[in-house]
Design a protein that fits this description.
With 111 residues, this protein is an alpha+beta fold. The protein contains two helices and nine strands, in the order βαββββαββββ. The protein has a six-stranded mixed sheet with strand order 4-5-2-3-9-8. Strands 1-6-7 form a three-stranded mixed sheet. A hairpin with a 2-residue loop joins strand 6 and strand 7.
Length: 111
């Protein structure tokens, strides 16, 4: 099931995933999952995936796919994954409209 309208991948994030995937000789598929834990209750987990599961929601930009499993999708529906660089470093960032609050590290959130 493709639910591209429910998740998004920015051009900056797509370019970064493509670069990482090429260096690791893997497909350009970024998997976003949500796990319990972190300082705010839930935390984001990113991995390069080898394939797309049939039940995954998929967004595609510039030949790169962002995939989210159905359980995690309930917590990140409407999100956008971006890649940002600043003096503090570079990281993927999730703009999640469902998050009621987040933590200072930017990797965990609560609903």
């Amino acid at each position: 099931m493709s639910e591209a309208a429910t998740i998004d991948l920015t051009s900056a994030a797509a370019a970064r995933v493509a670069t990482i995937a090429a260096k690791q000789a893997k497909p350009a598929i970024l998997r976003l999952a949500v796990e319990g834990g972190g300082c705010a209750g839930f935390q984001y987990k990113f991995d390069l995936a080898d394939d797309v599961a049939s039940e995954d929601a998929v967004a595609e930009r510039d030949g790169v796919r962002l995939v989210v499993d159905p359980v995690s999708l309930d917590l990140v529906r409407g999100c956008a994954v971006d890649f940002v660089q600043s003096l503090g470093g570079a990281a993927f960032r999730v703009e999640n409209p469902n998050a009621a609050s987040g933590c200072g590290c930017g990797t965990s959130f609560s609903i």
